[in-house]
Every structure is written in structure tokens, then in C-alpha cells.
Amino acid sequence: MAGTALPSEAERTGLIAILLPDLRGGGVERVRTLLAREFLARGYRIEFVLLRAQGELLPDVPPGADIVDLRAGRFRAAFWPLVKYLRRRRPAALLAAMWPLTGLAVLAKRVAHSDCRLVVSEHNALSRTPTYQGWSGRAHRMAGALLYRLAAGVVCVSQGVREDIRASTGLSPDRMHVVYNPVRRAVALDRAVDADVLGWWKEGAARLIAIGSLKPQKDFSTLLQALALLRQTRAARLLILGEGTLRAELETLVSSLGLKDSVRMPGFVPDPYPYLAHADLFAISSAWEGLGNVIIEALVAGVPVVSTDCPSGPAEILENGKYGRLVPVRDPEALAAAMTEALDKAVDRDTLRRRGAEFSIERAADQYLALIDPGGSMLAQR
Questions:
Q1: What distance in Å separates the CA atoms of residue 27 and residue 161, rounded to the nearest whole number?
Q2: Residue 51 has pLDDT above 80, yes or no
Q3: Are residues 95 and 30 located together in one domain of the fold?
Q4: What's the structural domain count of the chain?
Q5: What is the distance in angstroms between the CA of the first residue and the CA of the last residue of the chain?
Q6: Is residue 3 part of a domain?
Q7: CA–CA distance, 369 with 380 (Å, rounded to integer)
Q8: Beta-carbon count within 10 A of 127 CB
Q9: How many Cβ atoms sit within 10 Å of the Cβ of residue 251?
Q10: Buried b / exposed e across 132-167, counting CB within 10 Å, b at 16+?
């Protein structure tokens, strides 16, 4: 952390605090590191305020940004450390992501009597997540309805998420702002990748790639079943980049489907672009999404996409099928058929790259700063 003395008024006017549980290798965390880099380039000061200073993306924190470790093992344990942080560092703005951390930020701001401008963002269709089911879900919806009204703005990463939160909380639409997640530009596509994995992948078969945490939301079991169907008519090998709690379960499914020679799961990879550069097709089988950053990364790399038409995000990114194929959720037959069609049909990869480039960091930063620092007053006072 940058010092312990109270910051001067000039220092705090340019300070944006980014609140996250940690910097694990997820889409939200990637977006925040990208935004931080762009905010720094525009003259702001950045502090990552983490419940735990850990995660695969810690090395991605850009030079010039500080890391504050609240040393909180659980969300509830983070409340008072966050209150103390707000009182001590007095950031001009606080950007919080992901319920319930967003709600915690609203309460901490009130207790700390902080005048920071608080913007919260949601990156998933909350009604689809397990914590939003049953009585617990009703409590969350009521809390969100009350707390989110106290934020300066609520960012939703897709129109689908916006509608989901509106339905869940009753928030007025004019308080919710859609800002599509940016992704990194595809640089150094020729960067070295695991030679063993690449050699296996290129052995005379269609090269399929999927990226995401090994968790229920991503529904990789449907993708594996679709691969088994696809392999009845053609040689294909699937590379899944990601790590998670369902690894053992998915490895068992791979074996039971007779796919041990056709699937590799090497774990989390910080930069998927060099792998995407070698792919023939990108597949996403999610049961639900907020947006689906990995789809955009595939487009940026010029890779054809087949995706489930899940709520929400994929249809918005692919413009209802203009830039990739959409299939029903949890339908291995439809997914296998769409992958076959995509592999058989020529595609203009430059068109895909142009679509991916529309999700730029510059555009996202402009939209976030319009909420965080309307009129640029934070910098004008420095």
C-alpha cells in the first residue's frame, strides 16, 4: 500500500479504488486489470483493494497501481477492514464488482461516512446463480433493491444482465448502464505454447478449443458429449483451458466417453491467444453467462465460434448468429451439429476480428469514467 498518512486533497481527487475478492484468473479480474491500465494512462491513480492479495492475475496488475490486502478470509470479515480503508485512504471513487461484495461496499461507504463516488458492476445474470435461489435468493434481491439505490451507478455487462437485475431488484432502468467488457488485443500470437500440447493438438484432427473455469456454469459436460458425437464422423481434438472444482468429475466423463486421447485440460493459462492462434473452432457450452469475454477473445483472434444461446451475452456478442452459431443450452446433438457445420464452412476471419475489435478497452474506459468521474473533475482538481 502506498503510505499510511492521510492523503492530501490533490492525491485523493485522482484516486480510484478497485474492490475485488482477489485476482484469480477470471473474466471480471481480467477486465479490472485492463481498466486499471487504461485509467493509469489517462492520469488517474489506482489501488486494487483485495479481500485477499492472491490469484493467478496478480502479475497482471499494471505498473503504477498499488495493492491493498484487507486480509479477510470471508466477505463478512472484510467489512470493517474496508471501512477503515475508506476512512484512511479516502479514495475519490470506488469501483466494486460482484454481489455480495457490491452490497458490502455500499454499507461500508455509509458507515465510513465516505464521500467517494461508488459505482457497482454486475457480471452475471444473478437469477441464474445458485445463491439467488430459494429464500436466500429472495433476501439477496431485497438487499440489492435497497443497496443499489445508494450507488452512483450500476454497470451491467450486457443487456441481458441489465434486464435480469431490473427484474430482480426493481431498479429504475435509468440507474443501470450497459458497458460491454473489453478484452485484450491479440498480441504476440506466435508466443511459445506448450510444445507437447501443441504437438498433440495438431496431429491431423480438427482443433477445438474451449476456455473457462471448470465449474457448473460452464457446463463442459455438454461440450464433451457433443465432442463424442462429432468424433463419430470426423477426427477432432478438444483443448480446454481452465481450472476448477469439477476437474475430477470431467476427467471421469472424458474416460467414460472414450475421449482420453481426444481431450486435454492443461489448466489455467494466463494468455490464451497463442493457443487460439492454432485453433480451428472455439466452442462455449455455458448454461448461463453475464457476457462471455472468451467469445470476444476468440473473435479478436479470428476464430469461428459456436456458442450456447444462454442468458445472457453470447447472442449480443454474435448479433444473434451473424458472427457465430448459436445453439440451445444443454443440447449435445445441436452443439455437435453446429460444430460440424462450422468446421465445414469457410469463414472470413477478418470480419470476426473486426467484430472483436469493437469491444475495445478505450470504449469501456470512456463509459466507466462517465460514471466514476463525470466531467473529469477528479483530474481537474489535481
A1: 15
A2: yes
A3: yes
A4: 2
A5: 21
A6: no
A7: 14
A8: 18
A9: 14
A10: beeeebeebbebbeebbeebebbbbbbebbbbbbbe
CATH of the domain at 48: 3.40.50.2000
Q: What is the pLDDT of residues 76-88, one digit of tens each?
A: 899 999 999 999 9
Residues 6+ apart with CB under 8 A from 7: 15, 89, 90
Q: Give me the pLDDT at residue 371, please.
A: 95
Both 202 and 176 in one domain: the answer is no
C-alpha cell at 112: 465510513
Q: Which of 15, 6, 11, 114 minimizes the C-alpha distance to 65?
A: 15
- Residues 159 and 174 both lie in one domain: yes
How far apart CA 226 and CA 224 sit, in angstroms, is 5
Is the same domain home to 178 and 64?
A: yes
- Contact indicator for 325, 305 with CB cutoff of 8 Å: yes
CA distance 112 to 80: 9
Q: By residue range, what is the domain housing residue 261?
A: 195-357
Q: Residue 227 has which C-alpha cell? A: 465432442
pLDDT per residue as tens digits for the range 157-180: 999 999 988 888 888 888 899 999
Distance, in Å, from the CA atom of 102 to the CA atom of 144, rounded to the nearest integer, reads 9
Residues 275-297: tens digit of each pLDDT: 999 999 999 999 999 999 999 99
DSSP secondary structure of 96-123: EESTTHHHHHHHHHHHHT---EEEEEE-
- Alpha-carbon 79 to chain mean position: 24
Q: What is the predicted pLDDT for the residue at 136?
A: 56
The answer to whether the CB of 87 falls within 8 A of the CB of 112 is yes
**CB-based contact 35:364 (threshold 8 Å):** yes
Alpha carbons 342 and 339: distance in angstroms, whole number: 5
Note whether 114 and 67 are same-domain residues: yes
Tell me how far apart the alpha carbons of residues 115 and 109 are, in angstroms, rounded to a whole number.
Answer: 8
Percentage helix, strand, coil, to 5, in the chain? 45, 15, 35
Q: Assess whether 370 and 328 both reside in one domain.
A: no
- Rg (alpha carbons) of the chain, rounded to whole number: 21
317 and 371 part of one domain: no
Q: What is the distance between the alpha carbons of residues 154 and 120, in angstroms, rounded to a whole number?
A: 5
281 in the same domain as 157: no
DSSP state of 192: -
